[in-house]
Amino acid sequence: MVLRVEEEVVVAVTEHFSLTIVLLGLVLVSLPTGSTVLPEDRADVMYHGYDGGGVEVSGPSILLRKSVGDSVSISGNYYVDSISSASIDVVTSASPYTEERKEKSLSVDYLRNKTLMSLAYTDSDESDYAASTFSLGISQDLFGDLTTVTLGYAVGNDEVRNNSDSSFSESADRQNFRLGLTQILTKNSLLAVNWETITDQGYLNNPYRSVRYLDGDTYLTEPEVYPNTRTSNALALRLRYYLPYRAALGGEYRYFNDTWGITAHNAELGYTHPLRKDWIFELKYRYYTQGAADFYSDLFAYEGEQNFRARDKELSTFNSHTLGFALSYEIAKGGWRFVDRGSLNLSYDYIRFEYEDFRDLTSSTDVGEEPLYSFSASVWKAYLSIWY
Amino acid sequence: MVKIITFIILCTSLLSACGIEPWVKPYERAHLADPIMSFDRDPVASAYTHHVYQAREAARGAESGGGGGCGCN
Asked: For chain B, what is the total number of helices (H) and then of strands (E)?
């Protein structure tokens, strides 16, 4: 029997949740940067890859956007994750597996004077998880277009299944509330402030995952149990500054907390530098740190020690460092047939994860004395963008 | 949350009615209009980056740059 442990949390819980956010983000991010106009007509074809900790994920993402008349723009996205997992949890308690997840989304933007309204629907499906999300967004320019305010709301319904138990079926509901403000500070600097509250209700843990507890000199396992509600808040500040020789500096800080007792911070610094006339080079560094959920433990003292219990490393105490590079090359600058311009892009991120209370069970030392787990991941994206 | 949003909408509506003079004129926004100043130049790529982080981290929300407001298009 192929048990899926860690990646079900990653894929079935976090990623499905996250896609809700990402797609809502896509809707709002695609709002114009300036006095309100419709987003530009563009197409992006990307192939993405992730390789780290025994997990490989790759697949295409295709995004098309086209305006209809002067006040409506329609956008569609097709995205695939092909997953092959032999992660730390899978190799210590189950068998490697492969999985595929497909996601489709459609959004419509409607412009009226200085107000842009967006509607989006997203559908994601794989063998043991289905998710659908409906989202709304509104953006308004104020104060001589120095300020843009965005509001967003999304509601998602997920269905959780279990590939080793066909009678298993649970659901989870989610709501997202977003508030954003972008402000021109000076001729050379921009500030963005974003707030998001997310509430979940339903089956939020993973049907495959277990915790471990002490049993004499060894350990045994029992299923994870998470609370069936969760509310989280995130506040992010972002700055961009234009340097005198045509380059840009970017900075970001985000604070996060939730009702599971997790607090997290991340900070990022980026530098964007055009090279000659056709190239743009980017460099970034990001640091992330979080504290564990109240009900997380690497090793419980005995069976049923707590009502709620987790040993998902994404709920543990850890930090990560990301170093990223990206290169863009502009093509068809003077236009080519129906294309106004385009770009070829390549990016690579190296991420190092260091866990502080999640132990590597592949080691055969005494129970509870195993070395702490850590791993590195490579993330790359190659994509073609055209504007028409 | 609904009260907060209503309050913010009311405040911004009232303030916008005051006719604040923009301190960065539209013709002074050339640098801000440069694509290198975008919070999110390529949505398809940044969405994937957020996706990777969300899969590996407990934190979630407020990822996007959202909007822009450079008044330069």
From this structure: 3, 0
Contacts of A141 in chain B (CB under 8 A): 69, 71
pTM for the whole structure:
0.86
Q: Which pLDDT belongs to residue A334?
A: 87
**Chain A contact set for B64 (CB, 8 A):** 25-26, 28-29, 180, 194
Contacts 24+ apart (CB under 8 A), A112-121: A112/A71, A113/A36, A114/A35, A114/A36, A114/A140, A114/A141, A114/A142, A114/A145, A115/A36, A115/A139, A115/A140, A116/A31, A116/A32, A116/A36, A116/A38, A116/A140, A118/A27, A118/A28, A118/A30, A118/A31, A120/A23, A120/A24, A120/A26, A120/A27
Q: Residue A254: CB partners within 8 Å, gap ≥ 6?
A: A234, A235, A236, A237, A264, A265, A266, A267, B59, B62
Listed by number, the residues of chain B in 36-65 with a beta carbon closer than 8 Å to a beta carbon of chain A are 36-40, 42-65
pLDDT score at B62: 93
Please indicate if any CB of chain A lies within 8 Å of the CB of B14: no
List Cα–Cα distances, A323 to A112, A288, A379, A382, in angstroms: 41, 12, 10, 17
User: Which residue among B37, B51, B72 places its CB closest to the CB of A240?
Assistant: B37
Beta strands in chain A (DSSP E): 42-52, 55-68, 72-85, 97-112, 115-126, 129-142, 147-162, 165-186, 189-202, 210-215, 218-223, 229-243, 247-258, 263-275, 279-290, 318-331, 341-359, 372-387
Confidence (pLDDT) at A93: 73
CB contact under 8 A, A35 and B72: yes
| pLDDT tier, B72 (very low <50, low <70, confident <90, very high otherwise) | very low
Asked whether the predicted pLDDT for residue A227 surpasses 70, the reply is yes
Q: Residues of chain A with pLDDT > 70: what percent?
A: 91
In this structure, the number of other CB atoms found within 10 A of the CB of residue A244 comes to 7
pLDDT in tens, A125-150: 998 899 999 999 999 988 888 899 99
Give me the mean pLDDT over the A286-306 stretch: 96
